[in-house]
Amino acid sequence: MSELLDRLKHERGYVLPVHEAMDRVSPKLLLRYLDLSGYLLFDHEARALDLKTRYLVLVGITTAVRGDAEGIEWSGRRALENGASVHEVEEAMALAMLPAGVPAYEEAARAWRHVRDEGGLLKDL
Fold it and tell me: Rounded distance, CA 51 to CA 54, Å?
């Protein structure tokens, strides 16, 4: 594991396969990606959208593009940690039905059910 991946694991607590792939292609690519994602998703700097809203938007986008279950779980959890209600997360997923269709919403609902019911992740919020 490279020094950059070690730092990422220490800071965020995880390393995704996409991070490892970018690091293999070019550590500079990974660094630029981390700078961008850090600014967009983790920066607490005051901007037009607060962190709660940014994560709710991400829930909707991840639903609409039929993103992976981890993306729904991760962005939904982050939205909750930043003040969103369970209902707000579920509404963000439902909004994606218009541009993406019911199958996209169904996939997101399955992933979210894991967080809400089976994962036990909501009990500590």
Answer: 5
